[in-house]
Amino acid sequence: MDMVDEDRARKVAMIEEFFRLSSAKDFEGFLALCTDDIHMSIPYQLPGFPDHADGKDEIRATRTAVDRYEPYAMWASKIEPMLDPDQFLVESKGDMVVRATGRPYRNDYVNVFRFRDGKIAEWVSYHDPLRQMVAFGLTELPVASVTSG
């Protein structure tokens, strides 16, 4: 195994650990795998749920969204390296229950992980928000808050 393969194998293991720690709701554990300025983005997220965070403190503040689920389990089902050795395309699965409704929430995700200096610097996660709506018992999209500016 050459150095590039060893580096990629280490990053794949970090991604797997990221999901394991996330499932345990161990924010400090998975944030230890990340750069201080980690960028998280969840395009197509429902209004009222965090759709982005910049830095560890902002990600810590998203914990209330994760606490809406019990149990909460996410795992990587497929991890593919991209041409850039610091980028990975990750398919993942989620299996959880919404506390407020008791309904199961299962979804498939496509994620992009970007590394810098051996740590996760960016995590972008795409999912099907309709599955989330059903699990929360929503029949229409929540209204996004509007701020003037």
Automatic annotation (TrEMBL):
Start and end residues of each SnoaL-like domain: 15-123
SUPFAM superfamilies, sorted: NTF2-like
InterPro entries for the chain: NTF2-like_dom_sf, SnoaL-like
Pfam family, one: SnoaL_2
Superkingdom in the source lineage: Bacteria
Protein name in UniProt: SnoaL-like domain-containing protein
Species this chain originates from: Nocardia ninae NBRC 108245
